[in-house]
Every structure is written in C-alpha cells, then in structure tokens.
Design brief:
The chain has helices at 5-11, 58-77, and strands at residues 23-28, 32-38, 87-97, 106-117, 120-129, 132-143. By secondary structure, it is α+β, with helices and mostly antiparallel strands. The protein has one domain (5-143): Thiol Ester Dehydrase, Chain A (Roll). It has a six-stranded antiparallel β-sheet, covered by helices on one side. β5 and β6 form a beta hairpin.
Length: 144
Amino acid sequence: MTLDIEEIRNRLPHRYPFLLVDRVVSVVPGERIEAYKNLSINEPFFDGHFPGMPVFPGVLLLEAMAQAAGILGFVTMDTTPADGSIYYFVGADGLRFKRPCVPGDRVMLYANIVSERRGVWKFEVESRVEDELAASGTILCANR
C-alpha cells in the first residue's frame, strides 16, 4: 500500500511547516513502513541551521521518523485524527545520528513495530540517504 500527500494528511494532524513526510512508499499494517522526506533549500529551518552550511536539524529528523511511525500506527489501527485518535511522541532510546542530511537529499524513513501495550507503541526507526544510515533508534508513542 502506498500513500500520497493527501492520504498522509488524512492520517497525520501535522501541517506545514511541521508535516515532515512527503510520501509513503509502502506500508504493511501491523509490521512496517517505508516513507520519505525530500529536503529543499526552501525549507524555513535551513536559513538558521546553519547559515552557509545548511543541515536538517536532528530533532526534525527524529520527528520525521516519529511521523512515519505514527502513520504506521494509524494504518494498523485503521483510525485517523478525525476519529479522535492521536499519537503523542513520548520517548526515544538509543538514538544515534550518523550522517548530516542536507538540501537535495531524499531522506528515507523506516519504522517497524516492536510492540504495543495499553496504547503505548514501541517502534524501531531508521533514516537513510542513498542507502547510508543517517539516524536510528527506538521510539515510544502513546495513542490517546
């Protein structure tokens, strides 16, 4: 299953400039998702991070991975924010940044469901640029 930007907007409550998933390449409900974020020099955060050497902020890379995981959760549960369901980012473990992401990069976003207990989801997440690891870790999201 693939999702275009309108389907993503139906699954996530985020909007510009904080919607950080451009397309879902594949999603297997209950298992995994593959999505991407295209980085453009026109993104507002590049003006200040860093002038003369633009780098996608690590916290936004983490957020992009969390948004991909949130889409996986919504698809798995067959719910949307319009149904009153929302996923809150509640934690991260073992987060590592291996490579900077810069304008012109297509950042691939991956998430796998590890577990779900009482509305708290655990995901293994990873991001890559041209098959090179950019960041990885484990995140927790709570469905409320």
